[in-house]
Amino acid sequence: MTEVLFIVSFSFYFARALFFVIGAKKGRIKFKEIFINKYPFVSIIVPARDEQDNIIMCLESLVDSDYPRDKYEIIVVNDRSTDNTQRLVEKFAENQTNIKLLNIIEDSQKVVAGKPGALDFGIASAKGEYILLTDADCKVNKKWVSSMVKTFIEKDSDLVAAFTLVKHDSFFDKYQAIEWILMHTMASGGMGLNFPLGCFGNNMAFKKSIYDQTGGYGKIDFSVTEDLALLQTVHKMGGKINYICHRDSTVKTLPLKSVKEYLNQRKRWAIGGKKLGWKATLFVLASLLIWITAVVSFLEGHYYLSVIIMLLKVITDVILVIPTILTVKEKGLLPYLLPSNFLFIIVELILPFLIINKKVEWKGQVFK
């Protein structure tokens, strides 16, 4: 009986991994060397709340873009910052012609609370045909804007999601970097087979027209994962979505400094992920079966089966993420794949207990 459970659970998990492999392969595109005769105007929205330590890094990378300077604007939405974010942006913008600062003094100025409201506030002032989003703690690739625009043109996309990498020095940083790449791989794999599972709001873009058609974040059901909410809405409308894996389209974010911050972020993602409904249940079930098999095998004295099933789980995830790591040129993470994937197992055990309390703390704000 234990052997049958072993075969069923691993077959299910392997099928899930194969699903992601096939879907993710579609996202590893090669841009055609096309010449853009007429560069469309682009608006980049950067929400910022108490980001004095990061905002200049972000803005410096954005103004260093290879996209024509007169064809894009940078809109910084200062969302009730209590530090020097506003002053730093104002000073930096003095020497730039395409940076606009919008200040939110009170939450009542927004159509909805939190980050979705700040994004909507910025988008309302945007002049661009395409809206690109990133965060204040991110540094974008020099070719980021161009590569996103190329995707819109080549694929006739309504929404484009791309990969966020994590700046990594310590082992904890590298662990986070690998986890982000794994999650991106699964998200892009799902989207590659028209099965939206998520995306990351610090590296996504969409047509201004499709956002207007949704009614904006004021009309979309509130979520602590506003990126997923928008993705699902555009998908339900029949919009064309591409999730691309290419070094040029990446942005790099800063790692979380503490385990507490890390667990709070994973809790927020898990609670937001409940919006996936049966899709989330299906993919969680694959991992749950692995755990059931390991526990049952151990209790029945088949210790070797417990070890083998967990090893197979780790190896399967490692194989899944290697092509992505090579595509985004993060080869330095390869030696850390195995230990990081074993740590993912511990996080899987902790996460169910974290989401019992649905209160989410984020950027000094509390959401339920």
Write up this protein.
The chain has 368 residues and is of the alpha/beta class. It folds into 2 domains: 2-24 and 269-359, no CATH class; 28-267, Alpha-Beta Complex (Spore Coat Polysaccharide Biosynthesis Protein SpsA, Chain A). Helices cover 51% and strands 14% of the residues. The chain has 12 helices and 12 strands. It has helices at 2-27, 55-63, 85-93, 114-123, 144-155, 171-192, 208-214, 226-236, 259-273, 278-299, 303-327, 337-354, and strands spanning 42-48, 72-79, 99-104, 130-133, 138-140, 159-162, 164-166, 204-207, 241-244, 251-253, 360-362, 365-367. The strands form 3 sheets. A 7-stranded mixed beta sheet has the order 3-2-1-4-8-6-9, with helices on both faces. Strand 11 (360-362) and strand 12 form a beta hairpin. Helix 6 crosses helix 12 and helix 11 (303-327) crosses helix 12 (337-354). The longest helix has 26 residues, at 2-27. 43% of the residues are buried. The mean pLDDT is 88.
